[in-house]
Amino acid sequence: MRRTISKATDTSIRLPFSSRNLSQTAGRMVSKSPFELKPKYADFQKVQASRPDFDPSLPITYSKTPDPAWKYGKGTSDPASLEKGHVEIDPSETGRPMISNYRLLVSGIPRPISFVSTVSKDGETQNLAPMSYFQIMDHDPPTFVIGFSSRPDRPKDTMKNLEETGECVINVVSDHFVEAMNATSLDIPYGKSEWGLSGLNVAPSKTVKPGRVKEAVFSIEGKLLEMKSLDYHGAGKAGKPFGSMAIIEATRFWVREDAINEAKDEVDLSVLRPLVQLGGIQYGRIRETFELPRPSLAKELEDKSSGLTNFLEDI
Ligand SMILES: Cc1cc2nc3c(=O)[nH]c(=O)nc-3n(C[C@H](O)[C@H](O)[C@H](O)COP(=O)(O)O)c2cc1C
Description:
With about 325 residues, this protein is α+β, with helices and mostly antiparallel strands. The chain has 8 helices and 14 strands. The protein has a domain at about 110-275: Pnp Oxidase, Chain A (Roll). It has helices spanning about 20-30, 45-50, 100-110, 155-165, 180-185, 195-200, 270, 295-300, and strands spanning about 60, 110, 115-120, 125-130, 135-140, 140-150, 165-170, 200-205, 210-215, 220-230, 245-255, 275, 285, 290. The strands form 4 sheets. Strands 4-3-7-10-11-6-5 form a 7-stranded antiparallel beta sheet, with helices on one face. A 3-stranded antiparallel beta sheet has the order 2-12-13, with no helix packed on it. A two-stranded parallel sheet has the order 1-14. Strand 12 and strand 13 (about 285) form a beta hairpin. Flavin mononucleotide binds near residues 131, 149, 185, 187 and 277.
């Protein structure tokens, strides 16, 4: 279904989705990826059924830090970590499949998830897809990066739209719409919208054409500063696909009214309930936290008991 969004007040618009049109074109346009991930479980529904229900009411709690008595020079609170050796892995080793690096990296690096809304150049199709190769790079100006992996037949629609229009909305993923988010990762043909199949609602943006996810607690309107190709080794010349990185500057923030403080400078974690992506299909919710104030050099040097002067005698 094709529809543009009017820049109006914050009222939600539900986008209908034409599954008939999609199934007509899907067979033609879906190409088999040579990077197909093998499912982790033969029957995920069976595994899921054996697990306890998700409890959205569980509170966010605070504990002490792992080692409240830590002193400068002490290192780890788990000395046993030093007894283990490490396995060396060359990412470019001959015969190592690219998918092994994918699996290694996504299991070893927890990532926040950006849920990116874009619109096609002709303004006809709204696109929605999750991207967890994502981070904030700076707050002044508020700058973000999103990494797009290559796809054999065509670039990610999000990347194409972003490159052609220069606009997007980054929605932070909260646990209450994770299934809807996951559905939008379906590799549907370009020109088809994921909004309808997700069942999520679109709310109008102020500074960009793509709409926000109304259900999101925190959304960021953004404009593209730069799309960088990650083709440093001539993949393009060899006719192979390659990744890209978008650098985006925020032009507007939207925070749910019950999640923002009066000063408009803090999002309430207990409302945000953000998810992190861990492995390819594994997610983490934030349940237990602790606080660790950042040290100030002047104060730590003043406080003789801190022990910092033992390491910085000449300051
Ligand atoms: C949680 C999650 C995170 C993802 N992160 C990325 C990512 O960072 N980069 C990427 O290229 N694809 C990522 N994907 C896969 C894309 O969402 C998927 O390829 C999707 O079809 C792209 O949609 P598009 O073509 O409409 O942009 C992710 C998928 C999921 C479920």
